[in-house]
Specification:
Residues 1-35 have low confidence and may be disordered. This protein has helices spanning 61-68, 80-93, 97-116, 129-132, 135-143, 146-152, 168-188, 211-229, 339-345, 356-389; strands at residues 154-157, 160-164, 202-204, 240-249, 265-272, 275-277, 280-285, 300-303, 309-314, 317-321, 324-337. Strands 1, 2, 3, 4, 5, 6, 9 and 11 form an eight-stranded antiparallel sheet that branches. Strands 8-7-10 form a three-stranded antiparallel sheet, with no helix packed on it. It is α+β, with helices and mostly antiparallel strands and 390 residues long. The chain binds zinc ion (ZN).
Length: 390
């Protein structure tokens, strides 16, 4: 009985020097769970965790399901709400104070919206592949081979992948849902947060209940692609997202200047409406250090949006949107992030394998060193010639 209930009082990082925080859930869940309860060192593989999919939580439902196996045995029998409370406290302890406050505020903000907003199309809030995606996309994902993905993909410029993804009916429903949400925002006089500093017009989908659905979309449909085409920027470990809608129109264009996204991988799909202009232009992938350097001719690429057709690119791929010359265009954007990649990047040396300018600099250094070696050899043989003549 006591054999496998070893507790893990602290995670001191052992020899790896990365994790230094302690895991000490020193709060009280209820009277039956003592404050000294700690996580187990090894997961209980026989325990079948509960599903947390239906809850609006500040960490992905799968994180709770995974963590549940590490709960102290006495906690398996407490209610799901108590488990959530216990695990959430532990997870929050890993976040720095500022981040914890931000997560808390975001949760309250979302809760406030979700508890008052009446969705128009409930079917959008649970991922249903057959109604969301075109058959070719579903098949490529379910075959899940590099070849099946390459078959539906075109790469018109290095690092820019495009493919047919969303059903017209799904695009229409999402457009109507966003419109419905905007109307509700106006009527309720609620001040909502816009997706980012660049877009005054747009809504964060995660804020009004679509977070869990978009998480599933990232887990099941974006990550498998990113794993194949973007392994160098954490494509296989994408674990959080920011999903939003941006609206462009002749009356609404702001500064759509050139930028990089706060993401490892960005998915951009036009949902439609009638429009002309508004091309998405790309100018090569750059690291922080090289973000303002010039573009090579082969990095210059313009993409014309087609409703339902997705564009997938690295967040560090510099891009912008040209003015929409007529009509109105609405795009769905999902910025996918990898916490592992971000952590690893802190320890990374100068060179980024995915930065066009880093690659160019490296090739230039190699070229110079080859040239130097050649010229040394050349002078050596000239001297040797001279020696022999003398
Ligand atoms: Zn660079």
């Amino acid at each position: 009985m006591s054999g496998d209930s070893r507790e893990a009082p602290t995670v001191d990082g052992g020899g790896n020097g990365v994790v230094t925080e302690s895991v000490k859930p020193n709060f009280q869940v209820n009277m039956s769970v003592a404050s000294s309860q700690r996580l187990r060192l090894n997961p209980n593989k026989d325990h079948k965790p509960e599903s947390y999919e239906d809850l609006q939580l500040d960490f992905a439902p799968s994180v709770f399901s995974s963590l549940e196996r590490y709960l102290p045995p006495s906690m398996f029998s407490v209610s799901r709400d108590d488990k959530v409370k216990f695990m959430r406290e532990i997870l929050l302890k890993y976040l720095p104070h500022g981040e914890r406050t931000r997560v808390q505020r975001q949760r309250e903000y979302r809760q406030k919206i979700i508890s008052h907003y009446q969705p128009l199309h409930r079917e959008l809030y649970t991922l249903h592949a057959a109604t969301f995606f075109v058959p070719s996309f579903i098949k490529a994902i379910s075959d899940n081979t590099e070849e099946s993905l390459r078959n539906i993909m075109s790469e018109p410029s290095p690092g820019v992948f495009t493919f047919e993804m969303l059903q017209p009916h799904f695009c229409d429903m999402l457009l109507e849902e966003v419109e419905n949400f905007e109307k509700w925002v106006d009527a309720s006089k609620l001040r909502i947060m816009r997706p980012n500093t660049m877009n005054k017009y747009g809504a964060v989908l995660d804020d009004f209940g679509l977070e869990t659905m978009l998480d599933k979309l990232m887990d099941g449909y974006i990550r498998p692609i990113a794993k194949v085409f973007f392994p160098e920027v954490g494509g296989s470990s994408l674990d959080s997202h920011h999903g939003f809608i941006v609206e462009y129109g002749e009356d609404r264009d702001l500064d759509l200047g050139f930028h990089v996204d706060d993401s490892e991988i960005s998915l951009n799909v036009c949902l439609g409406k009638q429009f002309s202009g508004g091309e998405l232009f790309f100018r090569g992938t750059r690291c922080d250090k090289h973000v303002n350097t010039g573009s090579q001719p082969e990095e210059i690429f313009d993409f014309t949006h087609v409703p339902g057709r997705a564009v997938l690119h690295r967040g560090r791929h510099r891009h912008g949107a040209r003015a929409t010359t007529s009509g109105h265009r609405i795009n769905l954007l999902i910025w996918c992030r990898s916490s592992v990649f971000r952590e690893m990047k802190k320890y990374q040396k100068d060179f980024s394998s995915w930065c066009g300018e880093c690659i160019r600099e490296k090739q230039e250094r190699q070229r110079l060193s080859i040239a130097a070696t050649k010229s040394m050899r050349h002078s050596y043989y000239q001297c040797k010639d001279l020696d022999e003549k003398l």
